[in-house]
Amino acid sequence: MNRTADVVRVKSRARESAPRYVAILQQAMQAHQSDELDTAERLYREVLDLHPAQPDALHYLGMLCHQRGRGDDAVELIRQALTITPTHPDAHNNLGNIHKECGRLADAEACYRLALAYGPEHYNAQSNLAVVLEAQERLDEAFEAYARLLEQVPQFAHGHYLLGLFLRNHAQHEEHIEQAIECFRSALRLDERNVRALESLGVALYMLGRHDEAIAVYRDWMTREPENPVPRHMLAACGGAEAPPRADDAYVRDVFDGFAESFDEQLLKNLDYRAPQLLADALAPRLSAPSRMLDVLDAGCGTGLCAPLLRPYARRLVGVDLSGGMVEKARRRGGYDALVVGELTAYLEDRPDAFDLVVSADTLVYFGALGTVAIAAHRALRRGGWLAFTVEALDGEDDRVELGVSGRYRHSAWHVRLALAGAGFAEVHLASDTLRKEGGQPVHGWVVLARTG
């Protein structure tokens, strides 16, 4: 056997294939950037057929799998890429992002620290590290990480915004809110299009009792963007205009489409976000043991945080949300049999006797009076079915609904009970609990279960 000739032939084939796989990889990346995911995946796999150890193809195919909700495949592919190029900071950062979204915070932290070890100026990894430290309630370390981020990139508007949220969410003194206000102002000075910073500035001013200044922020915003539903809604929340009977669909869609990519991150920062788990705990003793026998609706599914808690009960699990951006995140997370972009009340009204269980975690906070949506939910439930939801609590014994400065509605217990009774629910359970923390303070709410007759 002429081994030298064999080696020459192998090397010759490698030289011939190299230009081909490079061109295919470029085409795959272009398709990926254009959101043509089917084409991109096919082309990445063509590259790997030609060159199984091509690290960029492994890395980017891993990211694509993550986008499509195939988290295990994503982790494995990026890990393979890192065995070939172990000092690649972007790959470590992206692997950390997958762990973060899956709630594996310690694994995410380790990835971000490796990204920074190999790329000390990788400010996205620095930002992500700060987030997961905060999520683990290591607040002193998180503050230092945010401060280091702004030392690295002082012109990074989003970094100032993130630090402002940190200070506001964990405020222990008025001084912390004042500092948050300065951070939001810095973010706006660096990027006047940062509407999240503008909205947060108004909320922070209101928290300090500077109501006129908050109202002025939203009125100025309305002047500049008269068609934008967000400042219009927030102006009402601050008392600068009459409160609408419920949040406008355009407001909800705009807010949550804008938050879709960072929504879970923001919930991690509003530490102790508990609504999905509270509902699961309340339902557990009232449902049969998890056996995948129920038709379940996640009403206002958002990014799909409820899916892992509901899946064990569900023969069929459907999610509906007004925000297409949130639904896409839920699709990536996986766990649903169907996902729908649509308005909740209309969706329920169109599906009589379709579900055994309807769960709504922190969605009805964007509804004022609950009567109409309660009737729609009753219509969509079968006999003996359960409606489970959370709303923010309003003290008092009378029938009241109030729009808060957060832009969310609060409901009295009496209003909740009257709405459910009027809708025809035969059995109602209502318990008080803490749904999350905000501005350093607990947000009290009602955990509500109602059963059809």
From TrEMBL:
Alphabetized UniProt keyword annotations: Methyltransferase, TPR repeat, Transferase
Pfam families attached to this UniProt entry: Methyltransf_11, TPR_16
TPR repeat windows: 55-88, 89-122, 195-228
CDD domains according to UniProt: AdoMet_MTases
Keyword Methyltransferase: yes
GO molecular function: S-adenosylmethionine-dependent methyltransferase activity
A Gene Ontology BP annotation from the UniProt entry: methylation
InterPro entries: Methyltransf_11, SAM-dependent_MTases_sf, TMTC_O-mannosyl-trnsfr, TPR-like_helical_dom_sf, TPR_rpt
UniProt entry tagged with the keyword Transferase: yes
Domain Methyltransferase type: 297-389
Name of the protein in its database record: Putative TPR repeat methyltransferase
UniProt source species: Luteibacter rhizovicinus
Record lineage: Bacteria, Pseudomonadati, Pseudomonadota, Gammaproteobacteria, Lysobacterales
